[in-house]
Each structure stands twice: as C-alpha cells, then as structure tokens.
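Something for you to look into today, if you have time. Just paste the record in under my message, thanks.
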Amino acid sequence: MSMDLSELRVFCRVAELASFTKAAEQLNMAKGRVSTVVRALEAEVGGRLLQRTTRSVRLTTDGEVFLVRCKELLTEADQLQGMFRPAAGEMRGRVRIDMPSLFAQEQVMPHLPALLSAHPLLDLGISTNDRRVDMVREGFDALVRIGPLPDSDLVARPLGMMAMCSLASPAYLRRHGTPLSLADLAGHRIVNYAANLRSEGAALRCEVDGVVRAVPMRSALSVNSSAYMQAACLNGLGIMQAALPTNQRLIDSGELVEVLPGFRPPPTQVSLVVPHRRHLAPRVEMVFNWLARITRPSMLDMPAPAPGAG
C-alpha cells in the first residue's frame, strides 16, 4: 500500500467530526480534496470506511476497526518524531478530552492560560459532558470521570479521591430551616442528579460510623447535568450533593452553605480514562500529567498502605 500519514490524519479527522465540511475547515483543505483523499484511502484498503448520506457521515464496521488502528499508528509516528526532542520542549498537535462541566470550569479553566502560554502550538479541545460518550467514535484522547466506572475495555488512570458534601443556598435554608440531623431531612427536598431524569430513589447519601446510608428524600427536581444541578441549588430549589472542590468557590463566597457536615457522603473516585494501554503521544502524555498535577491539591490525602500490604 502507498498510503501515507497525511491520508490517515485526514480520515481520522473526518471520522471524529462526522463531517467532510468540518474536517476540511479544520485541516484548511478544500472539501473536494478531503473527499478525494478518503476515497483514495478506501480504494487502497479495499473497503468502504465511511457511510455517506446527504445528512450524515458515519463509520462502517470496517471503518471503526480501521480508525482504532489509525490512531495507534499516528500515535507511534508522533512518538518517533519526538524521540530526540527535549522532554521539556514545546508541544504541538491536537489533544481532545471530555470532562464534567463543573470540573472543567472550577478545576481546569483557571490553569489553562499557563498551559497554553507554555505550549502555544498545542491544540487543546475540551468537551464538557455529563453523558457517556464513545471515545473511539467521537475521537477523544481521554475522559475525566467522577464516580464509579462501568466495566469496559477502557483503561482508567486514578487521579485521586474527592470529598463530597451536601449544599444548599442561604435563601433555601431561610425558608425551610437548616437540618441538624438526618431525621430533619423529612421536611426537606433534594435536587436529584439522575442520568435518566427519574426522581424515583432520590436520597441523600451519607457515611455514619463507616457505614454508607441512603436517606430517602422528596425530589424537588431531577437533572442530568452537574452545572444545572448547581444552578438549581443556587436558586433555592433544594439540597444537592456534589464534589466539595468544584463548589468551594461558592462556599467561600457564601452563595452556598454546607449542611450536615458531620454526615458527608463517602469520597468519590476521579479517573482519567484512556482507550488503550499502548504508549501515548508525548503531547497527550504531557496533558495527562498536567491534569494530574493541577488537580492534586483538590484530592484527599489517602492513608498509606499498612506494612506488608499488597
């Protein structure tokens, strides 16, 4: 085969964006040229990689397999090209990460100016979703996820554990009173985070003497966005449970108040999820290490393992 890396990069961008037009804009190429490159690539591999209709572009089954291998080859090429560059040298190229919206806003955004100033040729794409995404199909290099991870073939790198808390607005507490015990929750409402927007099973989770309890509560509102949950809580709709670091700024300003601090939920896991165990491109590894470094102050100190453990 005579395909080259530039052809693979064009195919990957079309597959990630599901659009020849958007890929052409990002690659600064004519749309017709992008189409020609992809058709030539399909001719070389002997199969259809993309299914085209007047409204959409999507990967075929062969295209999904080909995309995974393309990304691996391009990563290996990046590593070869960067083998003899100084480790602290300027990084260039594209890195795409999906993360929860509040995490991006509070934990990542304040540090972005320094990163992009140090690496002006880095093309960093940050998507803020609370929904599950398909890493391969949507072209992400990594996902940041808060909470337990579903079983999958993806590889998780732990970033740490975040403290959780229960919060309410001063206006809500003036109207409904401040709960001082778990029994007091009977007169309160919760802003319920639920991916499926169902209010059934709404409860305030807490840890009592090392045992996790779920105290059923009336749901004031069910949301599937951490940012919208925070907005609802700020507007006095109910108590919410959320990560302490992503709300610390509002606690410090007095816009939110922690309730039942002696009955906090158990800490939650924060993970960086990558698609495979293979070596990563230097720019991707650098961004991952940067994320671990800037979020470390927000993570709980974990107890050291007992002597002889593990």
